[in-house]
Amino acid sequence: MNEILEILEKDARATPEEIARMLNQKAVAVKSAIKKLEKDGVILKYKTVINKEILREENNCVRALIEVKLTPQKNLGFDHLAERVYQFPEVTSCYLMSGTYDLLVVVEGKNIHTVSSFVSEKLAPMENVRGTVTHFILKKYKEDGDILKQPEKSKRPAITL
Prior knowledge:
Helix 2 crosses helix 3. The protein contains five helices and six strands, in the order αααβαββαβββ. The chain has two domains: 37 residues, no CATH class; 78 residues, Alpha-Beta Plaits (2-Layer Sandwich), CATH 3.30.70.920.
């Protein structure tokens, strides 16, 4: 992969000037390369990784992984069905898989009931969906290469004199 992309993938806040220093290039050349990567659709957007485990009380978001078995439509295959699935606002990611199921769908909702309602009322009844298996995420330790470790609080009582 392109060295500029590798740096931006690790830290999207890296400036063209910083990247230029790391790669021993001119900042103008790096800016131009980044603009081209954006224009060509290689760089889609820049994201912030948020440790939602720390915000748990404020953000009661529930995330589930849903295995979906499909019967592909003649002349349309899996792509058409996947497009119908990923258009739902509850769906945050959708992958075509090899193995015992066809799609892996990542869904977020306010609580377990909103996710289960999505599956039972929208996803499972869709034409060509043969079955679903839902796995609720209980705790995340690492996501997209980032360890989501919370700072440890000392369990020892403070000593006062």
